[in-house]
Design brief:
By secondary structure, the chain is mostly helical. The protein is built from 3 helices and no strands. The termini are far apart. Keywords: Membrane, Transmembrane, Transmembrane helix.
């Protein structure tokens, strides 16, 4: 389901880009419409690239590694808390 949503959003962004390209003014260098058009195209390409990145799962390995690190940190915190509980029981 998550991949389908990315495909739909990327298709919408690509469709908007294709529809708007003939109407954007890219002829007059340095004019405000040309600057706006360039920024708009760049933002649309960033949106498309981010969804393509998610679809391809480029950082799936990184996500697994971060999950492993978070599990280790949680385990270490549990060990620390259990160790302090034992120390508190000793003091009584």
């Amino acid at each position: 389901m998550k991949g389908f949503k990315n495909v739909v959003y990327m298709s919408v962004a690509l469709g908007m880009l294709i529809y708007s390209l003939p109407q954007l003014q890219l002829r007059e260098v340095g004019s405000l419409p040309m600057i706006f058009s360039s920024i708009w195209i760049a933002m649309a390409l960033l949106v498309i690239a981010s969804h393509l990145h998610q679809i391809l799962g480029v950082d799936e390995e990184k996500r697994r590694e971060l999950k492993r690190i978070n599990r280790m940190k949680k385990w270490q915190l549990e060990q620390l808390v259990q160790g302090r509980r034992k120390m508190l029981q000793f003091r009584k």
